[in-house]
Amino acid sequence: MRLAPPNAFPPIRIPPLVRELLLFPVAASESQKCRRKGRYMKVIAIATGILGAAALVMADGKGAAAKKAMGLEEGKKIFEANCVVCHGASGKGDGAAAAAMTPMPRDFTDAAYMQTRPVDQLRKVISEGGQSAGLSPLMMPFNSSLDAGQIDAVLNYVIAFSKSGGAKKPK
Q: Which of 22, 90, 146, 154 is the most exposed place for a label (fewest CB within 10 A)?
């Protein structure tokens, strides 16, 4: 094995401020010591801020997708436990109890209808019941059995039934 000669690599250039901070020589006066410590703290604060911001950006990108997937999974569980009886497993309003209901439960796969409904109205129907939005009184309220996060999870799952992405975004 052949080793490279000691001067084969170019010298590393260290900026003067970084060199001063790394070496931190003993200062001649107290004011110089304070200035160097102040610079050192600024560099650490800036580096910490940059690394923290980068970590947040990276985590948010991955975390948002994971959170949405988890939210849809939670929404599916809640939907299966509370809504399938009327709305059916496929969200078409064809659940076991639907035949005896007038009006029939909403078909969530109807993208044209879902696009006409604001997200806030859909959330209100799930939370406070159909009658609160001038819809069927047979749609019962879930605000006493589900918290706001669970209602949002179910709402996102319901919106996912429609092929076009569903409801309009709130303004």
A: 22
Alpha carbon 159 to chain centroid distance? 16
* Any domain includes 8: no
158 domain residue, yes or no: yes
Residues with Cβ within 8 Å of 160's Cβ and at least 6 positions away in sequence, in order, are 72, 75, 166
Number of domains the chain is built from: 1
Q: What is the DSSP string of 51-105?
A: HHHHHHHHHHHHHHHHHHHHHHHHHHHHHHHHTHHHH-TTSSS--TTGGG-SSPP
pLDDT digits (tens, 9 = 90+) for 57-113: 665 555 555 556 568 899 999 999 999 999 999 999 999 998 888 899 999 999 989
Structural domain for 158, as ranges? 13-171
Report the C-alpha gap between 68 and 56 in whole angstroms: 17
Cut 0.90: pTM above it: no
3-state helix, strand, coil in the chain (%, to 5): 60, 0, 40
Nearest Cα neighbor of 114 from 95, 87, 138 is 87
Question: Does residue 5 sit within a domain?
Answer: no
Residue 163 CA to chain centroid, in angstroms?
A: 22
| Residue 164 counted as domain residue | yes
